[in-house]
Design goal:
Elements lengths: L1 E4 L4 E4 L24 H28 L5
Antiparallel strand pairs: 1-2
Protein name: IX
Organism: Streptomyces aureoversilis
């Protein structure tokens, strides 16, 4: 879809961002008690790290296509 570039005063064709796969299903579950166990904490940490990696891949793809400033 073209968009207007106010600096150039003309329409420019937009670039499509490279595909980034969907995030995997969460592996963490609600804590069984008031205090999470090490296994529960580690599962949550793994999910957060996976989402962080996915978000960084998406941001890198958007920068490469010019949709986001470097």
């Amino acid at each position: 879809m073209p968009y207007l570039n106010p600096a150039a005063g003309a329409a420019r064709e937009g670039k499509q961002t490279a595909a980034v796969t969907n995030a995997a299903a969460a592996t963490a579950a609600a804590a069984a008690g008031a205090t999470p166990t090490k296994a529960e904490y580690d599962a949550l940490l793994a999910d957060v790290n996976a989402l962080r990696t996915k978000l960084n891949a998406l941001l890198a793809a958007m920068r490469t296509s010019g949709q986001l400033a470097p």
